[in-house]
Structure formats: structure tokens, C-alpha cells
Write a structure and sequence with these properties.
It contains 10 helices and no strands. By secondary structure, it is mostly helical. The mean pLDDT is 88.
Length: 209
């Protein structure tokens, strides 16, 4: 089943919010002596999350009702608990309207090497995770698979992060549902480049002998 087409104005807003989430928010968190998110950042993050799916204004109102001090305190504790994702998520879910999915987004923004966002498409791309659940236990199952993939990828390239694995899975699932020919083309191109690199390495080894 194809994903519903997004209205142009909503797509434009999501693009701006996504750029903020992928670039500006991580940079802001990393600049702090202690990692945490502010109330403004958490509210903006919720707007980003809701813009990706069904908009529920009640959740936006609820997250805005959290005090700024509680948000800073809870997020500081959460980041300190990493790499223990279970405890980190539990610290964040004391906040109103913050469930495991929103908590995973906070951790991903501040520690992309250790956490991945609980995106529907990324979870759907993995085996054994249907039907989707939005619980802490389910998130940990999802992260177990992310970590397995990450371990394999890092054998060839240490720069891979959990968040990059999540984004790759999201892209795969999105193309699978919306543009299968483009997905096939991308996979064939990747396979061809890998083969060319392999042949190049083999030639180099022959010259060294």
C-alpha cells in the first residue's frame, strides 16, 4: 500500500523541520557542557514528529505544558544513562506527551551513534517487527536489530551510526512502497559500484605481488 501523498505546504514545512532536526538541534545539544534539550526544542521536536504522520494537536498542547526545568532535568538524566537505552527512555517518559517514540527522537538528536528514531518506515523494513507497537520493549527489540546491522557495517566503515542505519531503512521502505523501480535502480547501482571496487582492489593486489 502506498503512503498517502503529502500536501505541498505540509511537505515544505516538514522539509524545514527535518533540516532543523537533522542539523541544528544536534549541533545545539553537542555545544552544551551537559547534553539536554530545552522546552522550545522539545516542542519543536514534537512538531517535527507529528508533521511526519497524523497531526494530533492535543499532544502538542500536552508537551507544551511541561515546565522548562523538568524538561532540562529529565533530558540531562536521560543522556547520562546512555548507552543504557532502557533507563534513558524511562527518564524522558516522565514528561507529559513523551512516549518511547518521542523519547527516541530526543536521544537520536543528541547521541546518533547510540540511538535511532522509532520511525514507522524504519521498523517496517526489519523482519519480525509487525504489528508495530510503541512501547519501550518494542523499541529495544528494534534497537537490537539496528545494532546488529551497525556492527556489520562498521567492520567496513567505522563512521556508520545507529541513526544512519535508521535513515537508510526509512529510505528503503519509502521507495519500496512508493517507487519500486527507483529502489531497484539504486540497488543495482550499489551492487555495480561494489563490484567495480572489488575488481579495482584485486588489480591493485596483483600489482603489489
Amino acid at each position: 500500500m502506498k503512503m498517502a501523498k503529502m500536501k505541498p505546504e505540509k511537505g515544505k514545512e516538514l522539509k524545514v523541520l527535518d533540516s532543523w532536526f537533522q542539523n541544528e538541534l544536534p549541533a545545539a545539544i553537542q555545544e552544551r557542557n551537559e547534553k539536554y534539550v530545552t522546552k522550545m526544542e522539545l516542542c519543536e521536536l514534537m512538531k517535527w514528529k507529528l508533521s511526519r504522520g497524523k497531526f494530533r494537536p492535543r499532544l502538542q498542547q500536552m508537551v507544551e505544558s511541561n515546565s522548562k526545568d523538568l524538561i532540562i532535568s529529565a533530558s540531562k538524566k536521560a543522556f547520562k544513562h546512555l548507552p543504557n537505552l532502557k533507563k534513558a527512555i524511562e527518564e524522558l517518559t516522565v514528561l507529559k506527551a513523551v512516549g518511547p517514540a518521542t523519547a527516541s527522537a530526543v536521544l537520536t538528536a543528541g547521541a546518533p551513534d547510540q540511538a535511532a528514531f522509532m520511525a514507522d518506515e524504519s521498523m517496517q523494513a526489519l523482519p519480525g517487527l509487525m504489528p508495530l507497537q510503541y512501547t519501550l520493549g518494542f523499541y529495544l527489540q528494534y534497537m537490537d536489530q539496528i545494532k546488529q546491522i551497525l556492527k556489520i557495517l562498521q567492520k567496513e566503515d567505522k563512521t556508520w551510526t545507529a541513526h544512519q542505519v535508521e535513515l537508510t531503512l526509512w529510505t528503503f521502505q519509502f521507495l519500496k512502497l512508493n517507487d519500486p523501480p527507483l529502489l531497484i535502480e539504486a540497488m543495482e547501482g550499489s551492487s555495480k559500484r561494489k563490484q567495480e571496487n572489488s575488481n579495482g582492489d584485486a588489480k591493485s593486489n596483483k600489482k603489489l605481488k
